[in-house]
Amino acid sequence: PEVLKSQGGDGYYGRECDWWSVGVFLFEMLVGDTPFYADSLVGTYSKIMDHKNSLHFPEDVEISRQAKELICAFLTDRDVRLGRSGVEEIKSHLFFKNDQWDWNNIRDTAAPVVPELSSDIDSSNFDDIEDDKGQGETFPVPKAFVGNQLPFIGFTYFRENLLLSDFPELGKKVELCKNNGTKKNELRKNEDGEELIQFQEKINKLEDQLRNEIQTKDDLEQKYRAINNRLEKIMKELDEETSSRKHLESSFRQLEREKALLQHKNAEYQRKAEHEADRKRNLENDVNSLKDQLEDMKKRNQNSQISNEKITQLQRQLDEANALMRTESDTAARLRKNQTESTKQIQ
């Protein structure tokens, strides 16, 4: 904005305007379009001057919060623009915080995308630019005097019958009449009548040719309108296809996130199921141990008349262990069911 103001003599700008250019570059790299694009140069200038209200991020493009904050910090007034106090405040921005590299080893870190090149002049990663098959450039006649519009001074030849060049017979007769002015008036009248008839025939032919040319022009205009309508229809279908493709890509990214979440839940269910299976095995071991103790106590009771109270206590412990084992079995079955449903959703 300060560069545009300086063109009218009302402002000035410094090095901080370069960081505005970096913001425009980042926006175009992430979005695929310039941030202040308009159909006319005046519209673009107006958006730049009103950047606080005209800067918008498209909803169908996924951009991180840190990237948006960095772009907005660049595309703002020069008094508060990021980088006005030096490059260090830019390096410390959260957008550049990551686990892969820092500002000390960035030149030694492998890039996330390394294109495969067959040679130093390999251009396979760039789009082909079609040759312009349009008509050659034409230059208008300059308004300033250059001298080449002057007649050929000193060149005395002038063809008076230039307009009659398309009618050679008529031209000859006109010249003949000029040279033989002493001929009789009757002969001149007869010749003039023949000339008028021939001239009328020429006019009729030219009128027919003009009508044919007008008809051809109308046919071409009709074909042009039909082609133009077809082109507009194709462009509309292309816009709809592009919009549909962006919607599908957004839906695909959403499904990928949901798939990752389901995989995480499935792993968690599996971990819990394994944990419950271990608990169940431990409880089964405890139940078997209590059964053994109960049998041993019964045998001892038969031999040494152990008190019924001890046996009742062991029986109660056994019942509690059995109830706990049934509860754990139900829990393990429910976890296995959740794991099965989660696996089906992932597939």
From TrEMBL:
It comes from Micrurus spixii (Amazon coral snake). Keywords: ATP-binding, Coiled coil, Kinase, Nucleotide-binding, Serine/threonine-protein kinase, Transferase. Residues 328-347 are annotated as: Disordered. GO terms for cellular component: centrosome; cytoplasm. SUPFAM superfamilies: Myosin rod fragments, Protein kinase-like (PK-like). Residues 251-327 form the REM-1 domain. GO terms for biological process: actomyosin structure organization; cortical actin cytoskeleton organization; embryonic morphogenesis; mitotic cytokinesis; positive regulation of centrosome duplication; regulation of actin cytoskeleton organization; regulation of cell junction assembly; Rho protein signal transduction. It comes from the Eukaryota. GO terms for molecular function: ATP binding; Rho-dependent protein serine/threonine kinase activity. It is an enzyme of class 2 (transferase). PROSITE patterns: AGC_KINASE_CTER, PROTEIN_KINASE_DOM, REM_1. Residues 1-96 form the Protein kinase domain. Its EC number is 2.7.11.1. The keyword Coiled coil applies. InterPro entries: AGC-kinase_C, HR1_rho-bd, Kinase-like_dom_sf, Prot_kinase_dom, Rho-assoc_Ser/Thr_Kinase, ROCK2_HR1. Residues 99-167 form the AGC-kinase C-terminal domain. This is non-specific serine/threonine protein kinase. The lineage of its organism: Eukaryota, Metazoa, Chordata, Craniata, Vertebrata.
